[in-house]
């Protein structure tokens, strides 16, 4: 296919040269829906016609609200065809309406969409959404599964590479969501870079993905890339992977997946959760590219995965650690190599002094994320000057994949997208990430200068979290709190530090109550479980001369034990035992089991009358809770079940009632009446 200029050209070409290839959506490795490139072209035409009829302006944002499935793909390309900027967003969760609508509200207030694309089922919840986000009151809602527009009657619009294609929001939390403006040209250039880094083969790849399509890795890397290649894409829902990591690998095995990837935590989860019996059923010999990004890549995780799954045909050479960010569309660096990945043990003292020096003994290992892909310029910069090989600084990028800036945020756009070196050369994208380049151009990412937190592969801005905890605790000194990353076995989780103001209270502080208030507020506002809470003395949080919190330096002091604390709480230290089995299976016993499980998982005492939204239950823990209850009951439960009930009591009552109905249905009916 000739090089396309826009994403409309791209799909048009694939509908012509590979009409029968396309997408499949699976559940339990069985195909439940499919969509060929020819079918996608027709669906996109119909949706584009509806957008034009609905008054959508060229370049204007359209909000995409879809559950996992192929309707999202249709809506995405419908926006591309109509010249409308697609704004992917998580649909609201009825069981967690406060949290999900807070995130959605931040995005809506940022981009003010006049069009909402959705399904008929989700359209039925529009009134409830508007009650939480009144800015959606006057929006035009288009249900793509109920369209009557004629795809053959739609006429292509004149599109250009510089036209806006996507507004990709890098934060789903409540405070300051930022939407990266990504053009058709940005996306197609980045597709070329991905193909180069991955060694993609046109027409020959099978991508298997559970990644959320609302974030850049799932959107650009596993939804659009198969179209760019003219290959196949097999999708499964993110929650299905969280419920059972085996299902991802089983889909790779069944459909002959050649490309599949995820954040670091997913590989660790597969290693720990897939049983020996499940292992024996897998054939991973087709898996050619196992990319890993979106959060820090750990050598130990990759080594354990490669060792455990080698018997299934997985090759260490398939690993491809890579680096990228939404502001650069997706990929910045990465490369396939015979050894799979490179990792270096570094000297601790040099590491802390912003240098990567090989260790003579034991030291932390850093994983290489490849050289810059294509013709991009990749620098490591401090104070406007490029650093020498091995020296740590901020990663700067220049190239045709870099987005146009943040939507409706010119000041932040200038600061992030228009950086220049001291000699005036530029502009560069300031990534806010810390790294070093070796003499061969290999990039090692070692931390974050910018404020982004990545938990379970999702992005959070710490200032939003800090705002929540300061509002929750009047005794917290305003502007003196820090949200930071806590390293765990399968990735990063959240820790918070706040300064206590002794003038705010005349009575002795109840530290346990303070911790409870902080955890509850962050769970309610951000759908995050806090693993560590530190309450520090006044003056312990370092600041710049202009009064800004130095988050990186604060985290360094915490890890070095240099912060004077009034109180420390850690979830692991507060763990509680779980009853071994459910025997009577009554409502009270089920509730007690759930409360005990939560007490252990969240690291604090949880009563049977607890409200899920108030105890700090995040999405992954909710899935794990459902699995644990299902195992004890001997039942296969929906992975989202714990999210559908607001309290332990209601969930326990539902389960007990279901069990009673099962028992009644098993009683023989002899026709004798009562």
Strand order of the largest sheet: 18-17-19-20-21
What integer is the average pLDDT? 86
The CATH superfamily of the domain at 322-448 turns out to be Luciferase, Domain 3
Q: Approximately how much helix is present in the residues?
A: 25-40%
Assigned CATH architecture of the domain at 322-448: Roll
Largest sheet: 5 strands, antiparallel
So what's the CATH class of the domain at 322-448? Mainly Beta
The unreliable regions are 663-674
The number of distinct helices, counting runs of at least 4 residues, comes to: 22
Helix/sheet category: alpha/beta
Write down the Rg.
25 Å
Descriptive account of the structure:
The chain has 22 helices and 27 strands. Among the domains are: 322-448, Roll (Luciferase, domain 3), CATH 2.30.38; 461-570, ANL, C-terminal domain (GMP Synthetase, Chain A, domain 3); 587-665, ACP-like (Non-ribosomal Peptide Synthetase Peptidyl Carrier Protein, Chain A). By secondary structure, it is of the alpha/beta class. A 5-stranded antiparallel beta sheet has the order 18-17-19-20-21. α4 packs across α17 and α19 (587-602) crosses α22. Helix content is 35%, strand content 22%.
């Amino acid at each position: 296919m000739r090089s396309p200029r826009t994403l409309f050209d791209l799909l048009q070409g694939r509908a012509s040269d590979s009409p029968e290839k396309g997408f499949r959506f699976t559940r339990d490795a069985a195909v439940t829906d499919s969509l060929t490139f020819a079918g996608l072209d027709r669906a996109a035409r119909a949706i584009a016609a509806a957008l034009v009829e609905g008054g959508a302006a060229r370049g204007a944002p359209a909000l995409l609200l879809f559950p996992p499935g192929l309707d999202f793909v249709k809506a995405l390309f419908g926006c591309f065809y109509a010249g409308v900027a697609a704004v992917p967003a998580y649909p609201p969760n009825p069981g967690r309406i406060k949290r999900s609508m807070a995130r959605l509200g931040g995005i809506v207030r940022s981009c003010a969409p006049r069009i909402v694309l959705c399904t008929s089922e989700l359209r039925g919840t529009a009134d409830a959404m508007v009650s939480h986000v009144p800015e959606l009151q006057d929006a035009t809602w288009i249900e793509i599964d109920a369209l009557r527009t004629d795809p053959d009657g739609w006429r292509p619009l004149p599109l250009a590479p510089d036209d806006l294609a996507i507004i990709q929001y890098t934060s789903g939390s409540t405070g300051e969501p930022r939407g990266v403006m990504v053009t058709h040209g940005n996306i197609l250039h980045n597709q070329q870079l991905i193909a180069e880094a991955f060694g993609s083969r046109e027409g020959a790849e099978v991508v298997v993905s559970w990644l959320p399509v609302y974030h850049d890795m799932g959107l650009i890397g596993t939804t659009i890339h198969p179209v760019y290649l003219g290959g196949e894409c097999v999708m499964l829902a993110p929650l299905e992977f969280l419920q059972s990591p085996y299902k991802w690998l089983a889909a790779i095995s069944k459909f002959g997946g050649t490309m599949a990837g995820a954040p670091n935590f997913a590989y660790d989860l597969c290693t720990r959760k897939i049983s020996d019996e499940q292992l024996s059923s897998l054939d991973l010999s087709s898996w050619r590219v196992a990319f890993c990004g979106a959060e820090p890549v750990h050598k130990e995780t990759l080594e354990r995965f490669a060792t455990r799954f080698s018997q299934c045909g997985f090759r260490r050479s398939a690993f491809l650690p890579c680096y990228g960010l939404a502001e650069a569309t997706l990929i910045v660096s990465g490369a396939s190599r015979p050894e799979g990945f490179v990792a270096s043990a570094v000297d601790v003292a040099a590491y802390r002094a912003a240098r990567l020096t090989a260790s003579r003994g034991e030291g932390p290992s850093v994983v290489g994320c490849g050289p810059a892909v294509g013709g991009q310029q990749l620098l490591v910069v401090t104070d406007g000057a490029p650093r020498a090989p091995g020296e740590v600084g901020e990663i700067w990028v220049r190239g045709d994949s870099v987005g146009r800036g943040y939507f409706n945020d010119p000041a932040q756009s200038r600061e992030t997208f228009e950086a220049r070196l001291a000699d005036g050369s530029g502009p560069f994208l300031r990534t806010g990430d810390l790294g070093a380049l070796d003499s061969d151009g290999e990039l090692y990412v070692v931390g974050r200068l910018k404020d982004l937190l990545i938990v379970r592969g999702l992005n959070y801005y710490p200032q939003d979290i800090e705002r929540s905890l300061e509002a929750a605790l009047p005794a917290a000194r305003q502007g003196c709190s820090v949200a930071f990353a806590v390293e765990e076995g399968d990735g990063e989780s959240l820790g918070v530090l706040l300064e206590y103001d002794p003038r705010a209270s005349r009575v002795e502080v109840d530290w346990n109550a303070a911790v409870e208030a902080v955890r509850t507020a962050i769970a309610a506002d951000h759908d995050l479980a806090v693993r560590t809470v530190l309450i520090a003395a006044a003056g312990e949080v370092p600041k710049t001369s202009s009064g800004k919190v130095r988050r990186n330096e604060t985290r360094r002091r915490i890890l070095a034990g240099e912060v004077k604390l009034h109180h420390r709480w850690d979830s692991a230290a507060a763990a509680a035992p779980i009853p071994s089995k459910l025997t009577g299976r009554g409502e009270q016993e089920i509730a007690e089991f759930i409360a005990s499980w939560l007490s252990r998982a969240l690291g604090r005492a949880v009563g049977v009358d607890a409200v899920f939204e108030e105890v700090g239950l995040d999405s992954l823990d909710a899935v794990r809770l459902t699995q644990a209850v299902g195992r004890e009951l001997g039942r296969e439960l929906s992975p989202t079940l714990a999210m559908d009930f607001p309290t332990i009591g209601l969930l326990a009552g539902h389960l007990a009632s279901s069990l009673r109905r099962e028992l009644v249905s098993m009683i023989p009916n002899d026709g004798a009446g009562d």
